[in-house]
Amino acid sequence: MEKDNQEIKDLINSFNENEYFDFVNLHIHSKYSDGAAEFADIINQAHDLGFRKIAICDHNTVEGHKMFRDNILMTGVEFDCWCGYVFMHLLAYGIDVENPILTRFMAKSKQETEMDIVRIFSRRNVKKLIEAIHQSGGIAVLAHPACCWAIDLDKFVQKLISYGLDGIEVFYPYKRHRKIFKFHTEEKVREIADKYNLIKTGGTDCHTRNIL
Ligand SMILES: [Zn+2]
Ligand SMILES: [Zn+2]
User: Which of 50, 75, 118, 187 has the most CB atoms within 10 Å of its CB?
Assistant: First the structure.
């Protein structure tokens, strides 16, 4: 049975676009994956800087969330997975980090939280993963869609929606995003988000010691 995830949807929908990056950042990495910052230090920085909400989304792990809870912190994780022949990153928010179904999809080794070369061999299937995210009370969000390898992003998102996709990462630094070649434009991503009424999320995908 799926848990109710309306609360997390309402919370994310309550964020204003111009709050992103300075007051809300829903995509931060810590040392639990390939980030440079200590998990607890990210939380402290967010408080000191006057953030409203942050989400730490380490690659394929929620170990940090099992150790630290805070009212400024939303639970999150960024999974490597495949949708057919398309390799993609899927963010999950508002999940129960102890959920046994979702736990099966977590990294089996430290390397699987850090190394691109290991992570690309992920066997996670996006359809099953979205089901597990919903069963753990969370929502599923397509990460940095402009980097998506799909030729037709609109069709690709439609497919993900048929599997239960809830949202799409719209607010992020497109130009300086991880030096990865961009296949799609910001305008296209916004258009698709509106067209399918997807929840719009945002974050910097920060891997550095300081979150600002
Ligand atoms: Zn990513
Ligand atoms: Zn990321």
Answer: 75
Nearest in space to 209 (alpha carbons), one of 69, 74, 31: 31
156 CA → ligand 1 middle, Å: 17
Q: Domain with 185 in it: what CATH number?
A: 3.20.20.140
| Alpha-carbon dihedral angle through residues 204, 13, 2, 194, given to the nearest 10 degrees | -80
Instruction: pLDDT band for 120, please (50, 70, 90 cuts).
Output: confident
Cα(50) to ligand 1 centroid in Å equals 25
Asked if the model's pLDDT at residue 129 lies above 90, the reply is yes
- Beta-sheet strands, E only, within 20-74: 24-28, 53-56, 73-74
**Ligand nearest to the Cα of 180, by number:** 1
- Number of domains forming the structure of the chain: 1
210 found inside a domain:
no
58 in a structural domain: yes
| Residue 110 belongs to some domain of the structure | yes
Residue listed under structure tokens 């048929």:
162
Domain range for 127: 6-202
The alpha carbon of 38 and the centre of ligand 2 are apart by a number of angstroms equal to 16
70 alpha carbon to ligand 1 midpoint, in Å?
24
Ligand 2 centroid from CA 84, angstroms: 21
CA of 177 to the centre of ligand 2 (A): 10
Instruction: Give tens-digit pLDDT for 160-199.
Output: 999 999 999 999 998 876 666 678 999 999 999 999 999 9
* 29 CA from centroid of ligand 1 (Å): 10
- pTM, whole model, 2 decimals? 0.96
